[in-house]
Amino acid sequence: MIHDPKLLFLDEPTIGIDPKLRDAFWKYFEAIKKEGKTILITTHYMDEAFHCDRVGLLRNGEKIAEDHPKKLIEKYEVENLEDVFLKIVRE
């Protein structure tokens, strides 16, 4: 963050940290997003992906879905993003 990048790539930034610090990371991500920065995050935690403006779900290196998390949940008529993923791969 020293160079004040406009685009930030983060690969599973919250793996192995406690819930309090994990929450602090997401609050920080929201703050820098409000500054106009773009953040690209990879995560296996579907509850974290719900915080994002846009989600791309991948399976075997192929994109299987992409949209706003709420729209994906509505489209597939399920309760959460994990269920979206499971519904797609079972079809």
Terminal-residue CA separation: 42 Å
Structural class: alpha+beta
Helix content: 40-55%
Please outline the major beta sheet. 2 strands, parallel
How many DSSP H or I helices?
4
The number of domains: 2
Q: Encode the helix/strand succession as letters.
A: EHEHEEHH
- The parts where pLDDT drops under 50 for at least 5 residues are none
Strand order, biggest sheet? 1-2
Mean pLDDT over all positions: 93
Strand content: 15-25%
Shape: globular
Number of strands: 4
Radius of gyration: 14 Å
What does this structure look like?
The chain has 91 residues and is of the alpha+beta class. It folds into 2 domains: 42 residues, no CATH class; 39 residues, no CATH class. The protein is built from 4 helices and 4 strands. The strands form 2 sheets. The chain has a two-stranded parallel ribbon with strand order 1-2. Strands 3-4 form a two-stranded antiparallel ribbon.
Walk me through the topology.
Elements: E1 7-11, H1 19-34, E2 38-42, H2 46-49, E3 55-59, E4 62-67, H3 69-75, H4 81-90
Parallel strand pairs: 1-2
Antiparallel strand pairs: 3-4
Which characteristics define this entry?
single chain, 91 residues, alpha+beta, 2 domains, two-stranded parallel ribbon, two-stranded antiparallel ribbon, 4 helices, 4 strands
